[in-house]
Amino acid sequence: MNLGTGKYAGLSSYLAGVSSLDLVIVPHPAIPNLAAIPTGPLPPNPADLLSSHKMSEAIGELRNRFKFVVIDSPPVMAATDAVILSVQTDGVLLVVRSGETSKVAFTRTRDLLASVKCCLLGVVLNAVDASAPDYYYSYRYYPYSHGYGAQESAEAGHEEISVRSAVSPEDLDDSEKL
Questions:
Q1: Is 91 helix (H, G, I), strand (E, B) or coil?
Q2: Which of 2, 50, 110, 132 is the most exposed place for a label (fewest CB within 10 A)?
Q3: Is residue 4 part of a domain?
């Protein structure tokens, strides 16, 4: 779904009061119940618009209309947008690029998000080279159970399904990449 270059109406147009929310929502041409809102023209004050009452209203309205609302933002360290939006969401999924994001940058990002008390749901490590010699995976599956406690979980059989790296973040020095 190509939403264009941002010169047409989008979220910034709605937040600036130039367009309605209905006009900036773009339905996907082939997938029913999927829509997107382009960014729109770059405003002179994006942080002010994102922290406005109008943005909170937009998120509330989108929550009423859609089952899931996913907000994509620039990298946390590049602009304030992600931090501003993080406190208005139910949770944040942090995306980290393997081999390019340093441990220091990741730690700063995590700490910055924690400082505004956003709910960090997890981390996606993308661009992982699965053919690298220091990468391995295994699978661990835990079947759903209604019980509680160590005894009941010990009685249930567990099949492996977890994905993990052979190198833990603690093994990296501060200058190394994740």
A1: coil
A2: 2
A3: yes
Q: Is the pTM higher than 0.85?
A: no
pLDDT digits (tens, 9 = 90+) for 87-108: 999 999 999 998 899 999 999 9
Using CA atoms, how far apart are residues 124 and 80, in angstroms rounded to an integer?
A: 20
Phi then psi for residue 170, to 5 deg, are -65, -25
Contact 110, 86 (CB under 8 A): no
Is position 167 within any domain?
A: no
**Residue 63 CA to chain centroid, in angstroms?**
17
Task: Tell me how crowded residue 28 is: count the other CB atoms within 10 A of its CB.
Answer: 11
Residue 43 domain-assigned (yes or no) = yes
Give the pLDDT of residue 172.
45
Domain that holds residue 64: 1-70
SS3 annotation, 95-114: EEECCCCEHHHHHHHHHHHH
Q: How many structural domains does the chain have?
A: 1
- Segment 143-157 shows an average pLDDT of 47
Q: What are the counts of helices (DSSP H) followed by strands (DSSP E) for the chain?
A: 7, 6
